[in-house]
Request: fold
Amino acid sequence: MKTELAAMFRETLARLDPAARMAERIYCEHGVLSIGEDLYDLSAYERLQVIAIGKAAVPMADAFDQLVGRGRATGIVVAPHAPESPLRNFRYIEGGHPCPDEGSVRAARAVVEMVGPAGKESFIVFLISGGGSALFEAPLWEDVPLEGCRRLYEILVTCGANIYEMNTVRKHFSAVKGGHLAAAAWPARQVTLYISDVPEGRDSTVASGPTMPDESTAAECREIIARYKMDLPESYQRGIPETPKSGEGYFDHSRYHLLMSNRDGLEILADLARQRGWRVEVDTSCDDWPLEKAADYLLSRLRRLRAPACIVTGGELSCPVTGNGIGGRNQAFALYCATKIAGERLAVFSGGTDGLDGNSPAAGASADGETCARAAAANLDPRDFYERSDSYTFFDKLGDAIVTGPTGNNVRDLRVLVKG
Reply:
């Protein structure tokens, strides 16, 4: 079962294709661009510009350029890595992740310089995907040093906050997030196409919402900082201003279209599980829960099902870093479950659809009722590895770490728990 779960995950990644999804939703014929029910006569605009930001930026920019006609648009692509065959009409800038680097700041500066002079005669298409928060960044105050910005991100990704909470803080300390990029591009016509790596209903959190009105508030930001006892860098210890909100004129000429989300991955996984003869239950109720609480809940529910059955679930779990090892929340989930299912005919898998889990080279890992016995034979203590946040090393030694490499996409994490 453990092997089957890893195979299902890889097949799901292959079917979560940003370019294919864009081709299903976008058409351009006789100079008229069709996105969903919206129609845009491109001849009415002097410039067609594309700004792609995030882990899926490269395939999204390439797909859009092909759909509207090669070379018709110009723009900037901000991604973790530039493609081997870049398009001549786009400028590619590599940013840092999970913490911003000089490329992230350079990307933000270049994008604002491109969209800033845009007027009503400009049509700007923003292609946004997960990872954009770190890849694309400009601190709200110009005197904030890069090291201070990086330290803020380190605090956010290790304190146990969920994605909404992390990005609420990021928005309020950024000059290009929380709707600020839309404000910079106003009054141009703006369309945002995005792939979601956040919970349903939190769409303005994708990449910290550079083009969307911000639903969070400065008061929330302060409360989150206090709740997680964040020791902010000195350069961030000042007043927290509000971000652009719904109803402000910056968003009068903006439209937003969701292309893909965690739900798409869950549907594919559930279908693959049914093909294998398993009864399937999809459970997303534990999204954003603490890892151990979610694992205990899911395993308890799985044990009550009649075999062969499985639970398909997704979203992200909070997983504070308690050691200095190598790993991430997906491998930590599998490791925690391994200690709970020893000797049982159960198997679990958890993986990140971006292909990277925490600070490790793996996307995730799989475990079953024999994992702890195999670990004992290899003189590995799973609880010790768990406490040191070293889940990747544990699964790598057992050959159960799942390495896919960066996928060029991100629709959050996917998990499957099976009872044989």
In short: Residues 263-419 form a domain with the glycerate kinase, domain 1 fold (CATH 3.40.1480.10). The mean pLDDT is 96.
